[in-house]
Amino acid sequence: MTLFLCVMTTPENANVERDDPMADKAIKSSRKMGIGQRWSQVSLPNKINVGLTVVIVVLTAVNVFFFVKQVKDQDAQVAQVTNAIVTGINNAKTATERMIDQNESSLRAVLEENRKALRSAEEQSRISLRASIEASRLDQRAWVGVTSVTLPECSDGTKPVFFYAGCASRLGVNVENLGRSIARKYSLRAGAYIGESGLSVKPVYGPISDSSVTVLFPRMTVSTYTPPFGNPTNEDQVTALRSGRATLFFFGEITYEDVSGTKRQTTFCFRLTKDLAGMVSCGSYNEAN
Question: pLDDT tens digits for 278-289?
Answer without folding.
Answer: 999 998 999 999
